[in-house]
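Just curious: can you write whichever protein you like plus the matching structure tokens?

***
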Amino acid sequence: MFTNLEHLGLAVHDLPAATALYTTLLGQPPYKTEHVESEGVDTVFFRVGGSKIELLAGTTPDSAITKFLSKKPQGIHHVAFEVADIRAEMARLRAEGFVLLNEEPKYGADNKLVCFVHPKSAAGVLVELCQSISAPDHE
């Protein structure tokens, strides 16, 4: 079951400039920055009430963010929802006919297990499922 809107992921070309812009816009600094080697991205997180804004910049030519930005303008990349049990939610969505981009959850930024739902099966929106984990034991 989806429990809340976890974050909006925003793809940006220039992470330091976007970080400065969102620091001014939101009136607060980010609470976390992180490099996710497996995805080829650098991330910056801001808290906004009970949700977050995640800025993403590709660090390799083959990262999903770099490829996204080669075809589209910077802006909303994905919508992420917190789930209590990511594997159960993945099974439910598969049974409902949704196409998932990964067979098993992957370790993502901000101490999360993540899985993405293909935009073609979600009205053109890339949807991320996120389950909190206690510690980054994958590093």
The longest helix spans residues 15-26. The first strand starts at residue 2 and ends at 11.
